[in-house]
Amino acid sequence: MNFLGWAASIQQRTEVALELALPPSHISPTRLHDAMRYAVLGGGKRVRPLLCHATGDLFKATLHSLDMAAIATELIHAYSLIHDDLPCMDNDVLRRGKPTCHIEFDEVTALLAGDALQALAFHVLSSHSLDVDLSHQLDMLNLLATASGSRGMAGGQALDIASTNQQLTIAELELMHIHKTGALIRAAVLLGAHCGKATSSELDQLSHFATRLGLLFQIIDDILDIESDTATLGKTAGKDVAQNKSTYVSLLGKTQAKELAVCLLHESHAALSSFGDRALRLHELTDFIAERNF
């Protein structure tokens, strides 16, 4: 199967697994469940589930375990988007080409939907049906919790808010994005590896790969924020400039930012070299992320 066919099959598997994991709309509290489903289903490229499955392919992990790890990361990602869009954060009105959750419902419902999705992610990952050893399952829970909290995504968001209207150094910007964007990307990769019983050495190599890939993802995001329009992105274009936030483009200029992206692309591929042809899907996915227009 070629890459696009493989990616479409994983995206479809992820959509089905998310549909089954989310509470049905007819169960009380119905408005909250509607908001959760609205924010998660029918949108997004499912990059983190793709990373989870691509890594799991390296170690012959079962599809069921990868599905559960993949949707756990996607639920955390969806919750973070809801909260990022709230008036107290980025105050955005568009996400994935439709009104943000607090616009479609209301601010309180959106806040609770994000909280509930975070809880659901850990409910999924702690399930007895996850097809991994208990010690690996505990490691996976710890990994996702760390990636989501103050030493990961939430901490990165705090750094982002604190840096508004300030010019950061490249080192400060990198630290912020290693937490805000990179932590969950790294978690998706390593959760897939844990599903397949990777060794400590292999986990270290994949961690380095994911860190470089996370920074690549963010630089591409910064470039797209100024080069693409709102309809293409599915979210408000030019938001970083409007909010006076430091980005790789604002600090380096567009040409140098693109050069750094190429460098990180090569570093990401190089970090997978020891896996040989087994890492084909991860190599293809890395190129997909570098070439994305969403």
Can you tag this structure with a few keywords?
294 residues, mainly alpha, Farnesyl Diphosphate Synthase, 16 helices, 2 strands
Description of the molecule:
The two termini are 24 Å apart. Helix 2 (30-40) crosses helix 6 (107-125) and helix 7 (134-148) runs antiparallel to helix 10 (182-195). The chain has a two-stranded antiparallel ribbon with strand order 1-2. The relative contact order is 0.12. The mean pLDDT is 93. The longest helix is centred in the C-terminal third of the chain and has 28 residues, at 200-227. It is built from 16 helices and two strands. The protein has a single domain (3-289), classed as Orthogonal Bundle (Farnesyl Diphosphate Synthase), CATH 1.10.600.10. The protein is globular, with a radius of gyration of 18 Å. The chain is mostly helical. 70% of the residues lie in helices and 1% in strands. It has helices spanning 3-21, 30-40, 47-58, 63-85, 101-104, 107-125, 134-148, 153-162, 170-180, 182-195, 200-227, 230-233, 239-242, 248-252, 254-270, 280-290; strands at residues 94-95, 98-99.
